[in-house]
From TrEMBL:
Domain Ketopantoate reductase C-terminal: 207-330
Organism: Dissoconium aciculare CBS 342.82
Keywords of the record: NADP, Oxidoreductase
Name of the protein this chain belongs to: 2-dehydropantoate 2-reductase
Ketopantoate reductase N-terminal domain segment(s): 5-158
Bias (Basic and acidic residues) ranges: 336-348
Coiled coil start-end: none
GO biological process, one term: pantothenate biosynthetic process
Highest taxon, organism lineage: Eukaryota
InterPro entries: 6-PGluconate_DH-like_C_sf, 6PGD_dom2, ApbA, KPA_reductase, KPR-Related, KPR_N, NAD(P)-bd_dom_sf
Keyword NADP carried by entry: yes
Pfam families: ApbA, ApbA_C
Region annotation Disordered: where it falls in the sequence: 336-355
GO CC entries: cytoplasm
Amino acid sequence: MPTRILIVGAGAIGAFYGSRLATLDDVKVSALCRSNYKAVQKHGFRVESPKYGASTFKPEFVYGSPDEARKAKIQWDYLLVATKALPDVNDDSALLEDLVGPNTSIVLIQNGLGVEQPYAQRFPNTAILSAVTVASAAQPQPGVIQHNRWTRISIGPYLPHLDSGGSGPRPDTDQTFTERTTRLVSLLQEAKVADAETYDHAGLQFVRWHKVALNAAMNPSSVLSGGSTNQTMALDPELSRHLAGVMQEVLDTAPKILGRPLPSHLATPERILASTRKNTSGSRPSMWLDWERGSRMEIEVILGNPIRMAREQGLEMPRLQAMYALLKQAQIIRDERQKQDRQHENARSKSSPKL
Protein backbone atom coordinates (compact mmCIF):
# COMPACT_ATOMS: atom_id res chain seq x y z
CA MET A 1 0.00 0.00 0.00
CA PRO A 2 1.36 3.46 -0.87
CA THR A 3 1.84 6.16 1.75
CA ARG A 4 -0.94 8.70 1.24
CA ILE A 5 -0.30 12.32 2.14
CA LEU A 6 -2.71 15.27 2.02
CA ILE A 7 -1.30 18.81 1.90
CA VAL A 8 -3.70 21.04 3.85
CA GLY A 9 -3.20 24.62 2.79
CA ALA A 10 -1.35 23.98 -0.44
CA GLY A 11 0.53 27.25 -0.62
CA ALA A 12 4.20 27.71 -1.43
CA ILE A 13 5.76 25.71 1.41
CA GLY A 14 3.20 22.91 1.44
CA ALA A 15 3.35 22.50 -2.33
CA PHE A 16 7.15 22.57 -2.35
CA TYR A 17 7.52 19.71 0.12
CA GLY A 18 4.57 17.90 -1.48
CA SER A 19 6.30 18.10 -4.85
CA ARG A 20 9.40 16.44 -3.40
CA LEU A 21 7.47 13.63 -1.72
CA ALA A 22 5.51 13.03 -4.91
CA THR A 23 8.71 12.00 -6.71
CA LEU A 24 8.69 8.73 -4.73
CA ASP A 25 7.00 5.74 -6.33
CA ASP A 26 5.38 4.52 -3.13
CA VAL A 27 3.98 7.92 -2.07
CA LYS A 28 0.75 9.49 -3.30
CA VAL A 29 0.31 13.19 -2.54
CA SER A 30 -3.00 15.07 -2.74
CA ALA A 31 -3.77 18.74 -2.11
CA LEU A 32 -6.51 20.62 -0.27
CA CYS A 33 -6.44 24.03 -1.93
CA ARG A 34 -8.05 27.40 -1.41
CA SER A 35 -7.71 30.29 -3.87
CA ASN A 36 -5.45 28.28 -6.18
CA TYR A 37 -7.89 25.37 -6.52
CA LYS A 38 -8.93 25.91 -10.16
CA ALA A 39 -5.38 26.40 -11.39
CA VAL A 40 -4.04 23.34 -9.54
CA GLN A 41 -6.98 21.17 -10.55
CA LYS A 42 -6.38 22.02 -14.21
CA HIS A 43 -2.58 22.17 -14.43
CA GLY A 44 -1.11 20.89 -11.18
CA PHE A 45 1.76 22.83 -9.60
CA ARG A 46 4.61 24.26 -11.64
CA VAL A 47 7.61 24.20 -9.29
CA GLU A 48 10.78 26.14 -10.10
CA SER A 49 13.81 25.60 -7.89
CA PRO A 50 17.49 26.52 -8.11
CA LYS A 51 18.28 23.16 -6.48
CA TYR A 52 15.86 20.78 -8.22
CA GLY A 53 15.14 22.59 -11.48
CA ALA A 54 11.69 23.07 -13.03
CA SER A 55 9.03 20.39 -12.76
CA THR A 56 5.28 19.85 -12.72
CA PHE A 57 3.70 18.23 -9.67
CA LYS A 58 0.22 16.86 -10.31
CA PRO A 59 -1.45 15.77 -7.05
CA GLU A 60 -3.27 12.44 -7.01
CA PHE A 61 -6.43 14.28 -5.93
CA VAL A 62 -7.16 18.01 -5.70
CA TYR A 63 -9.88 19.20 -3.32
CA GLY A 64 -11.47 22.63 -3.17
CA SER A 65 -12.87 22.27 0.35
CA PRO A 66 -12.55 20.07 3.46
CA ASP A 67 -16.03 18.66 2.78
CA GLU A 68 -14.91 17.48 -0.65
CA ALA A 69 -11.88 15.77 0.91
CA ARG A 70 -14.07 14.14 3.58
CA LYS A 71 -16.41 12.68 0.98
CA ALA A 72 -13.44 10.89 -0.64
CA LYS A 73 -13.12 8.76 2.55
CA ILE A 74 -9.40 8.16 2.03
CA GLN A 75 -7.29 6.85 4.90
CA TRP A 76 -4.48 9.38 5.10
CA ASP A 77 -1.10 8.48 6.57
CA TYR A 78 0.01 12.09 6.95
CA LEU A 79 -1.88 15.38 6.91
CA LEU A 80 0.70 18.12 6.23
CA VAL A 81 -0.78 21.37 7.55
CA ALA A 82 0.95 24.39 6.05
CA THR A 83 -1.63 27.10 6.72
CA LYS A 84 -0.80 30.44 8.32
CA ALA A 85 -1.30 30.13 12.10
CA LEU A 86 -3.96 32.70 13.09
CA PRO A 87 -5.65 31.41 16.27
CA ASP A 88 -7.19 34.86 16.84
CA VAL A 89 -9.07 34.48 13.53
CA ASN A 90 -9.95 30.79 13.24
CA ASP A 91 -9.17 27.32 14.51
CA ASP A 92 -7.68 25.45 11.56
CA SER A 93 -7.76 22.17 13.47
CA ALA A 94 -11.48 22.07 12.59
CA LEU A 95 -10.48 21.62 8.93
CA LEU A 96 -9.25 18.13 9.79
CA GLU A 97 -12.48 16.83 11.29
CA ASP A 98 -13.33 13.43 9.72
CA LEU A 99 -10.02 13.39 7.83
CA VAL A 100 -8.09 11.87 10.74
CA GLY A 101 -8.06 8.08 10.93
CA PRO A 102 -6.54 5.68 13.47
CA ASN A 103 -3.19 5.63 11.62
CA THR A 104 -3.08 9.28 10.60
CA SER A 105 -0.33 11.64 11.74
CA ILE A 106 -0.83 15.41 11.70
CA VAL A 107 2.28 17.35 10.64
CA LEU A 108 2.29 21.06 11.48
CA ILE A 109 4.61 23.11 9.26
CA GLN A 110 3.74 26.44 10.84
CA ASN A 111 5.49 29.38 12.45
CA GLY A 112 5.36 30.28 16.11
CA LEU A 113 4.84 28.62 19.46
CA GLY A 114 1.83 26.75 20.77
CA VAL A 115 0.51 25.88 17.30
CA GLU A 116 0.19 22.20 18.28
CA GLN A 117 -2.20 22.68 21.19
CA PRO A 118 -5.50 23.14 19.27
CA TYR A 119 -4.80 19.97 17.26
CA ALA A 120 -3.81 17.98 20.35
CA GLN A 121 -7.00 19.07 22.10
CA ARG A 122 -9.24 18.18 19.16
CA PHE A 123 -7.43 14.91 18.36
CA PRO A 124 -6.03 13.70 21.71
CA ASN A 125 -5.16 10.19 20.49
CA THR A 126 -3.55 11.25 17.22
CA ALA A 127 0.17 11.62 16.53
CA ILE A 128 1.03 15.31 16.24
CA LEU A 129 4.37 15.96 14.53
CA SER A 130 5.77 19.45 14.91
CA ALA A 131 7.84 20.81 12.02
CA VAL A 132 10.00 23.89 11.50
CA THR A 133 11.39 24.87 8.12
CA VAL A 134 13.80 27.52 6.92
CA ALA A 135 12.88 27.00 3.26
CA SER A 136 12.06 30.15 1.31
CA ALA A 137 9.33 29.81 -1.31
CA ALA A 138 6.60 31.93 -2.86
CA GLN A 139 3.53 31.48 -5.07
CA PRO A 140 3.62 34.48 -7.43
CA GLN A 141 0.53 33.21 -9.23
CA PRO A 142 -1.93 30.38 -8.55
CA GLY A 143 -0.25 27.00 -8.97
CA VAL A 144 3.22 28.41 -9.68
CA ILE A 145 5.72 27.76 -6.88
CA GLN A 146 9.05 29.57 -6.80
CA HIS A 147 11.47 27.86 -4.42
CA ASN A 148 14.11 30.47 -3.66
CA ARG A 149 16.62 28.91 -1.27
CA TRP A 150 17.15 26.43 1.52
CA THR A 151 15.35 23.14 2.09
CA ARG A 152 15.96 22.21 5.73
CA ILE A 153 12.98 20.96 7.70
CA SER A 154 13.17 19.78 11.32
CA ILE A 155 10.49 17.41 12.62
CA GLY A 156 9.77 15.96 16.04
CA PRO A 157 6.85 14.31 17.86
CA TYR A 158 4.75 16.63 20.02
CA LEU A 159 4.86 15.03 23.49
CA PRO A 160 4.13 17.84 25.98
CA HIS A 161 3.69 15.35 28.83
CA LEU A 162 7.49 15.01 28.77
CA ASP A 163 7.97 18.71 29.60
CA SER A 164 8.96 19.86 33.07
CA GLY A 165 5.89 19.42 35.27
CA GLY A 166 4.25 17.02 32.81
CA SER A 167 2.81 13.59 33.58
CA GLY A 168 5.86 11.73 32.27
CA PRO A 169 6.44 9.15 29.50
CA ARG A 170 3.61 7.25 27.83
CA PRO A 171 5.34 4.14 26.47
CA ASP A 172 2.23 2.91 24.65
CA THR A 173 2.16 5.93 22.28
CA ASP A 174 5.48 7.79 22.54
CA GLN A 175 7.38 5.17 20.57
CA THR A 176 4.72 4.99 17.84
CA PHE A 177 4.70 8.76 17.38
CA THR A 178 8.50 8.81 17.24
CA GLU A 179 8.54 6.05 14.62
CA ARG A 180 6.08 8.00 12.45
CA THR A 181 8.38 11.02 12.69
CA THR A 182 11.36 8.94 11.61
CA ARG A 183 9.37 7.47 8.74
CA LEU A 184 8.39 10.88 7.35
CA VAL A 185 11.92 12.25 7.62
CA SER A 186 13.22 9.15 5.83
CA LEU A 187 10.75 9.78 2.99
CA LEU A 188 11.88 13.40 2.69
CA GLN A 189 15.52 12.36 2.62
CA GLU A 190 14.71 9.76 -0.03
CA ALA A 191 13.05 12.56 -1.98
CA LYS A 192 16.42 14.41 -1.93
CA VAL A 193 15.63 16.80 0.91
CA ALA A 194 18.98 15.81 2.36
CA ASP A 195 18.80 18.13 5.37
CA ALA A 196 15.43 16.88 6.65
CA GLU A 197 16.20 16.07 10.28
CA THR A 198 14.61 14.27 13.23
CA TYR A 199 14.43 15.64 16.77
CA ASP A 200 12.93 14.44 20.01
CA HIS A 201 10.14 16.50 21.56
CA ALA A 202 12.31 18.90 23.57
CA GLY A 203 14.85 19.25 20.78
CA LEU A 204 12.19 20.29 18.28
CA GLN A 205 10.65 22.76 20.71
CA PHE A 206 14.07 24.39 21.08
CA VAL A 207 14.20 24.68 17.28
CA ARG A 208 10.79 26.37 17.43
CA TRP A 209 11.93 28.81 20.12
CA HIS A 210 15.06 29.56 18.10
CA LYS A 211 13.07 30.39 14.98
CA VAL A 212 10.69 32.49 17.10
CA ALA A 213 13.73 34.43 18.33
CA LEU A 214 14.46 35.37 14.73
CA ASN A 215 10.82 35.97 13.73
CA ALA A 216 9.95 37.92 16.89
CA ALA A 217 12.90 40.21 16.28
CA MET A 218 12.69 40.77 12.52
CA ASN A 219 8.97 40.64 11.73
CA PRO A 220 7.48 43.20 14.15
CA SER A 221 10.51 45.47 13.86
CA SER A 222 10.09 45.73 10.10
CA VAL A 223 6.43 46.71 10.50
CA LEU A 224 7.09 49.18 13.32
CA SER A 225 9.97 50.78 11.38
CA GLY A 226 7.87 51.30 8.25
CA GLY A 227 8.97 48.33 6.16
CA SER A 228 12.71 48.15 6.72
CA THR A 229 14.49 45.31 4.96
CA ASN A 230 16.25 42.62 6.96
CA GLN A 231 19.67 43.94 5.94
CA THR A 232 18.77 47.56 6.74
CA MET A 233 17.73 46.61 10.25
CA ALA A 234 20.86 44.51 10.82
CA LEU A 235 23.13 47.32 9.62
CA ASP A 236 21.50 50.13 11.60
CA PRO A 237 23.32 50.52 14.95
CA GLU A 238 20.23 51.07 17.11
CA LEU A 239 17.99 48.59 15.32
CA SER A 240 20.74 45.99 15.35
CA ARG A 241 21.11 46.42 19.12
CA HIS A 242 17.33 46.09 19.45
CA LEU A 243 17.20 42.91 17.33
CA ALA A 244 19.99 41.28 19.33
CA GLY A 245 18.21 42.16 22.57
CA VAL A 246 14.92 40.62 21.42
CA MET A 247 16.59 37.43 20.22
CA GLN A 248 18.57 37.08 23.42
CA GLU A 249 15.44 37.59 25.52
CA VAL A 250 13.71 34.72 23.70
CA LEU A 251 16.76 32.43 23.89
CA ASP A 252 17.21 33.18 27.62
CA THR A 253 13.56 32.31 28.27
CA ALA A 254 13.38 29.04 26.31
CA PRO A 255 15.54 26.92 28.69
CA LYS A 256 13.48 28.12 31.66
CA ILE A 257 10.30 26.95 29.95
CA LEU A 258 11.63 23.66 28.60
CA GLY A 259 13.76 22.73 31.59
CA ARG A 260 16.92 22.02 29.58
CA PRO A 261 19.99 24.05 28.57
CA LEU A 262 19.89 25.74 25.18
CA PRO A 263 21.55 23.40 22.62
CA SER A 264 24.98 24.72 21.66
CA HIS A 265 24.48 24.12 17.91
CA LEU A 266 21.81 26.83 17.63
CA ALA A 267 23.13 30.06 16.12
CA THR A 268 23.69 33.02 18.46
CA PRO A 269 22.04 36.42 17.82
CA GLU A 270 25.44 37.81 16.78
CA ARG A 271 25.89 35.05 14.21
CA ILE A 272 22.37 35.57 12.84
CA LEU A 273 22.88 39.31 12.49
CA ALA A 274 26.29 38.88 10.86
CA SER A 275 24.68 36.66 8.23
CA THR A 276 21.77 39.08 7.75
CA ARG A 277 24.13 41.98 7.12
CA LYS A 278 25.44 40.09 4.08
CA ASN A 279 21.93 39.55 2.67
CA THR A 280 21.70 41.91 -0.30
CA SER A 281 18.41 40.52 -1.66
CA GLY A 282 16.35 43.39 -0.27
CA SER A 283 13.98 40.91 1.37
CA ARG A 284 11.51 41.97 4.03
CA PRO A 285 9.88 39.78 6.66
CA SER A 286 6.52 38.18 5.82
CA MET A 287 4.76 40.15 8.56
CA TRP A 288 5.52 43.39 6.69
CA LEU A 289 4.05 41.91 3.52
CA ASP A 290 0.89 40.97 5.44
CA TRP A 291 0.70 44.47 6.90
CA GLU A 292 1.09 46.05 3.47
CA ARG A 293 -1.66 43.82 2.02
CA GLY A 294 -3.98 44.55 4.90
CA SER A 295 -3.91 40.88 5.95
CA ARG A 296 -3.91 39.54 9.49
CA MET A 297 -0.44 38.98 10.92
CA GLU A 298 0.85 36.02 12.94
CA ILE A 299 1.09 38.20 16.05
CA GLU A 300 -0.31 35.68 18.52
CA VAL A 301 1.89 32.67 17.71
CA ILE A 302 5.08 34.71 17.28
CA LEU A 303 4.63 37.22 20.13
CA GLY A 304 1.54 36.52 22.22
CA ASN A 305 2.06 32.83 22.90
CA PRO A 306 5.72 33.13 24.03
CA ILE A 307 4.70 35.92 26.41
CA ARG A 308 1.85 33.85 27.85
CA MET A 309 4.03 30.75 28.21
CA ALA A 310 6.60 32.80 30.10
CA ARG A 311 4.01 34.34 32.41
CA GLU A 312 2.70 30.89 33.32
CA GLN A 313 6.18 30.28 34.73
CA GLY A 314 6.32 33.66 36.50
CA LEU A 315 8.57 35.19 33.83
CA GLU A 316 8.26 38.42 31.85
CA MET A 317 9.54 39.24 28.37
CA PRO A 318 9.50 43.06 28.32
CA ARG A 319 10.96 43.51 24.85
CA LEU A 320 8.43 41.15 23.26
CA GLN A 321 5.60 42.57 25.35
CA ALA A 322 6.28 46.11 24.14
CA MET A 323 6.18 45.10 20.47
CA TYR A 324 3.15 42.85 21.03
CA ALA A 325 1.12 45.66 22.64
CA LEU A 326 2.05 48.19 19.96
CA LEU A 327 1.56 45.90 16.97
CA LYS A 328 -1.70 44.41 18.23
CA GLN A 329 -3.20 47.87 18.69
CA ALA A 330 -1.86 49.03 15.31
CA GLN A 331 -3.57 46.05 13.64
CA ILE A 332 -6.87 46.85 15.37
CA ILE A 333 -6.75 50.47 14.20
CA ARG A 334 -5.72 49.48 10.66
CA ASP A 335 -8.54 46.92 10.39
CA GLU A 336 -11.09 49.44 11.68
CA ARG A 337 -9.94 52.00 9.12
CA GLN A 338 -10.22 49.42 6.36
CA LYS A 339 -13.74 48.58 7.51
CA GLN A 340 -14.72 52.26 7.51
CA ASP A 341 -13.19 52.76 4.04
CA ARG A 342 -15.23 49.85 2.69
CA GLN A 343 -18.40 51.25 4.24
CA HIS A 344 -17.76 54.67 2.74
CA GLU A 345 -17.05 53.13 -0.67
CA ASN A 346 -20.28 51.13 -0.52
CA ALA A 347 -22.23 54.23 0.48
CA ARG A 348 -20.76 56.20 -2.44
CA SER A 349 -21.59 53.38 -4.85
CA LYS A 350 -25.22 53.29 -3.72
CA SER A 351 -25.59 57.07 -3.93
CA SER A 352 -24.03 57.39 -7.40
CA PRO A 353 -26.61 58.03 -10.15
CA LYS A 354 -27.10 55.11 -12.51
CA LEU A 355 -26.75 55.91 -16.21
